[in-house]
Amino acid sequence: MITPILPTYGRQPVAFERGEGMYLYDTDGKKYLDFYAGIGVMCLGHSHPTLVNALIEQGKKLWHTANTYQIPEGEKLAQRLVDASFADTVFFTNSGAESIECAIKMARKYHHDKGNKGRYRLVTMTSAFHGRTLAGIAAAGQEKLTKGFEPLPDGFDVVPFGDLDAVKAAIGPETAGIMVEPVQGEGGIRPLPDATLQALRKICDDEGILLVFDEIQCGMGRTGKLFAHEWAGVTPDIIAVAKGIGGGFPLGACMATEDAASGMVVGSHGSTYGGNPLAMAVGNAVLDEILAPGFLEHVVEMGDLLHARLAALMQRHSNLVTEVRGKGLMAGIRIPSIPTKEVVTDLIGRGMLPAFAGDMVVRMLPPLILDETHIDEAMETLDACLTDLAKKQT
Ligand SMILES: *Cc1c(COP(=O)(O)O)cnc(C)c1O
């Protein structure tokens, strides 16, 4: 018999009751170190006082009006995002998939309005993840996402991850742009090298097409810069943002330069909830914290420490761990000899919450507020887990 909740998720047999900072407590009162942060969403940890306060205060005043009216809190958040980034303008959404959808529509409309109606295709990369809409799964092109949902929307050319020659070969008179994650999340915590991101920018400039970054997982401070592409010194035309931007409130954004957004005018796009007063109040509170002096420096410092400690862990467990990947507080360890799900389930039993990603990678996206003691605790748990799993293997 089908469950009342559509059974589309494989769920761990644990339910949480409350959270505080870096920790979650399940319904039996057991404590867990949260190294997943609800897929990187809880960037400020659980029950952050600034966010709780913003939500309660706004909740007493006004939740929702409609985008037919001015929303001053939204104008403020958009201005702050513009001031802190490459972008000149922002469209607010409720999720990552909607941010991607807006980015795709914007790229098509740009060329349409410049008189290049035939330019509608985007070049994307294998093992990408761009959300679960039809366009999002078509853009990622992975069979595990698309099978059974055909026919898919036309307009995506998927090339091997990081392969610049393949990118160039895929570009034709119908190409509108290139869309990639600067650091792939679901695909296995795979950063594109800075040189590759720079080369993509040059290709787009040479071809007169748009560079779109999916920063839904790697953005909002996760790598130690507000946006991951900043490390490469590359300026995109459009980015899709979500996850951390709402700190747990469903919020996303599509951000663009004035030129890239030039086709989006009154009536060309919309969202009932997108950017409502409740979401904007929380979004502004999240940004207060992320842009506070020293916050991103802390992420860089903790990211360096995490990667150094994971490298040491790999040395101790070189029989199991073959690679440490990622950037900042977006980290993965590759364990090809044991099903990743088994490792994750074992860690959850030990009171630590990571998750799996593609390519046999155990993925860590801890809240950005962690300190060294949490990294110590995670390493002790990982060390014990890998020691026991190695014993089981022999
Ligand atoms: C999570 C994610 C999405 C989809 O976001 P939703 O909020 O689940 O729609 C798209 N792209 C990337 C890179 C993601 O990590």
Tell me the radius of gyration. Answer: 21 Å
How much helix, percentage-wise, in residues? 25-40%
Strand content: 15-25%
- In quaternary terms, these chains amount to single chain
At the fourth CATH level, what is the homologous superfamily of the largest domain? Type I PLP-dependent aspartate aminotransferase-like (Major domain)
CATH fold label of the largest domain: Aspartate Aminotransferase, domain 2
The CATH first-level class of the largest domain comes to Alpha Beta
Number of strands: 17
Q: How confident overall, as mean pLDDT?
A: 97
CA-based shape:
globular
Task: Please describe the structure with a list of short key phrases separated by commas or semicolons.
Aspartate Aminotransferase, domain 1, globular, Aspartate Aminotransferase, domain 2, 12 helices, 17 strands, 2 domains, binds pyridoxal-5'-phosphate, 4-stranded mixed β-sheet
Structure description:
This protein has helices at residues 37-40, 49-61, 72-83, 96-113, 134-140, 143-146, 164-170, 194-207, 277-290, 295-316, 340-349, 372-393; strands spanning 16-20, 23-26, 31-34, 89-93, 121-125, 156-159, 175-180, 183-184, 190-191, 210-214, 238-241, 252-256, 323-327, 330-334, 352-353, 355-357, 361-364. The chain folds into two domains: 16-34 and 294-393, Aspartate Aminotransferase, domain 1 (Alpha-Beta Complex); 49-290, 3-Layer(aba) Sandwich (Aspartate Aminotransferase, domain 2), CATH 3.40.640.10. With 394 residues, it is α/β, with parallel strands linked by helices. Helices cover 37% and strands 18% of the residues. The protein has a seven-stranded mixed beta sheet, sandwiched between helices. A hairpin with a 3-residue loop joins strand 16 and strand 17 (361-364). The model has no long low-confidence stretch (mean pLDDT 97). It has twelve helices and 17 strands. Helix 2 (49-61) packs antiparallel against helix 9 and helix 3 (72-83) runs parallel beside helix 9. The structure holds pyridoxal-5'-phosphate. Residues 95-97, 100, 129-131, 181, 185-186, 214, 216-217, 242-243 line the site of pyridoxal-5'-phosphate (PLP). Pyridoxal-5'-phosphate (PLP) binds next to helix 4.
